[in-house]
Amino acid sequence: MDGEALSWGHMAKVRALKPAHTLKAGELPEARIYVGDCCEVIPSLPERDVFDLIFADPPFNWKRDYDRWGAGGAWDDSQATADYLEFTYQWLDLCIERLAEHGSLWVNIPDTWAAEIVIHLKQRGLKMVNWCVWHYRFGQNTNGRFINSKVHALYFMKDPTHPDRRWNADEILEVSDRRSIYGDARTENKRDGVEAGHRLPMDVWYGQHWGRVQGNNKERRHKHDNQLPEVYLGRVIAACSNANDAVMDPFLGSGTTGVVARAMGRRFVGVDFAKLNAEHAFDRIKAGPVRSLDHLKGQSTAIHPQRRVPRVPAPTPEPGV
Ligand SMILES: C[S@@+](CC[C@H](N)C(=O)[O-])C[C@H]1O[C@@H](n2cnc3c(N)ncnc32)[C@H](O)[C@@H]1O
């Protein structure tokens, strides 16, 4: 099955770029991976403006070798600021062009570039729905300033009031602090339409399995050091798309977006500059997620009071005292 054989409903008859990896015919939902610069690949995709959800975790221009284990030819991650921003605005604009009118665009980005991206998206007329923060505990240690422990998860739409907006609140509910910490009866009898004792997640994301994917983390893929946790993509995809919707990730990396999208029954298109990343991502997409995707559904992320500090034994009195 190649790109031209796919039917995305209202796709235009354009000469399609050939994907590097596709699932075999009949292996639904479909998933296609392209290798190349997303600024060249996206305009050559056969679809026209049909992505219900786009999730982008771009290179941060932090001098990373994204093809460290590959055959060379990694993306230049040490560009002059002006060049990096030009590239950033270009891929953002291409994503906007391909985003459905009811669609959602998410960008995972550190402090370094969050402000520029937010301003650009606003200037393009997109509306910010949430500025979420992914908080993790294992930041890079520093002495001269506060340790970074977050990345921004920016949630934008063309039209948040669109009648076809995807917003599946029930899929992402958490047990409220009122239930899990305070035992407050009001949460059991609330009338906001949300399940008793539950609420939507807050805009700072953390908790079990939300840490950076490092060390001996079960999710960790060999030869990748920029992997996002599956729960992160689980939350975004469950909330902002429906089964059989089209999801796109222009910076696939180890493939987390594709893994979760496919496991949740979404169609998927991914792009990566590095051939080896694309190969590994495709293997991972076929293998599926490491953990069941609803294993955390309905749990609490309450910050519990600290456990009591162990008592220090009293000093032994000196002889003769
Ligand atoms: C931050 S990583 C993405 C990690 C991914 N979210 C995950 O969970 O594994 C960025 C990826 O973008 C790829 N990349 C860099 N520049 C690119 C470009 N111009 N077009 C497509 N992919 C690019 C890199 O090879 C790298 O794999």
Question: What does this protein look like?
Answer:
It is a single chain. The protein has 321 residues and is of the alpha/beta class. It has a single domain, classed as Vaccinia Virus protein VP39 (Rossmann fold, 3-Layer(aba) Sandwich), CATH 3.40.50. Helix content is 23%, strand content 18%. The protein is built from 7 helices and 11 strands. It binds S-adenosylmethionine. Residues 37-38, 57, 59, 66, 75, 224, 226-228, 250-251, 253-254, 256, 271-274, 277 line the site of S-adenosylmethionine. S-adenosylmethionine (SAM) binds at residues 37-38, 57, 59, 66, 75, 224, 226-228, 250-251, 253-254, 256, 271-274, 277.
Ends distance: 88 Å
CATH architectural group: 3-Layer(aba) Sandwich
CATH superfamily: Vaccinia Virus protein VP39
What is the helix/strand order? Answer: EEHEHEHEEEHEEHEHEH
Report the major sheet: 9 strands, mixed
Helix content: 10-25%
CATH C-level: Alpha Beta
Q: Which regions have little confidence, pLDDT < 50, spanning 5+ residues?
A: 1-14
Enter the CATH topology name. Rossmann fold
Q: Please count the beta strands (DSSP E, at least 2 residues each).
A: 11
How many domains? The number is: 1
User: What number is the mean pLDDT?
Assistant: 86
- Fraction of residues in β-strands: 15-25%
Number of helices: 7
Q: What's the shape? A: globular
- Tell me the Rg in angstroms: 22 Å
